Amino acid sequence: MTPATPDCLRPGARSDTRGRPAGATPACALGAVALLLGLVLLPASAAASAAARADPPPVVTLSQQEAGKGGDITVSGTGWRPKTLLMMLICGQSAPGRGVIGGTNSCANSDGRAVTTDAQGAFRKKMPVAEPPKPCPCVVHVATVTGSEPAAVDAEFKVAGHPVAPLPQPGEGGKLAVLAAARLDGSGSVLTWFGAPQTRRLVVTVGNLGSDPVKDPVFQVGTSHGVFAPQWEERQWRGTIQPGKKARVALDVQLSAGAHGDYLVSLKYGQKVLAEQPWGVGRPWGVTLFWVLLCVVVPAAVFRIGMAAVDRVRPVRPRTPGRHRPARLQTRPPTPRRNATSAPALPWFTPDNAPGPHTQISAPSKSQNSPTTKGNS
Hints:
Structural class: alpha+beta
Largest sheet: 5 strands, mixed
Number of strands: 20
């Protein structure tokens, strides 16, 4: 409600001869102050009244806090949405502050009861006491079945004679499973051809099948060769996988230098192996080529160095004075050079014109060889 405005502050009020509103008295000033305070406090009072009119949270009460199997209890509730279908279950491994750990798998589903709230959002229903599949602490779990705004309330309850076990720590209820086949991403390089360590990324899609979120899970990646056991190394993945959600996990895998052959890469979380992926690694032929070249080049270099050392150490033979190397005997006379216009300077001698005594080379004539005629002696 808005405070009433004093007459002295209303528009059109009469003024005196000095220009002041008629009736401008201390009472009018107090009225103006009260008006200002009312305007300031009005939003706070309106918020308080709206909060008072808000619907209270749903509440569940039990006729008794402990009962054995075969008995029954009465479950009552108020503050629920009108005409809403509810499901009542006795669940183990649960607590009002933690909820139902493990979902409805921890509840006695076959002995549950359904109830519908009245026009005021209240209900009252009797249900049998049954032992849940999980140990206590136990609760009576009441949750909405229909409606766009789900609501649930847990009331502490003890099943007489049922085993009791401590609740798991937060995060232990997460359960990871592989949803898609694993694969190895990446390839080798020139360095790996010469024996550098092979590196790949193991990519796998996992889902959280548990009831608790899994935050920054620590996996174990192992590599095995032949009949040998895998060598495990821890790899932490940064992120959170909520219950019922999935995530793509990529982890680094590295082999030792010079490794080759058939390997098996395994992924383990906790004590369970999630995935296995074979990995065929080729032989580093660059190392073989290097050793072949080394066996050829090194002996050749050693031989050259040894020959150079021998040439440097070998003494030089001194030459004897006056001794000269005999000239080669020329067995064939050189062919004289001829010009197109001049005759040879030194013609070749024939047996006929050679100087010195001549010997007859041709055959004797007939007259010389004929016998002496008669009468000549």
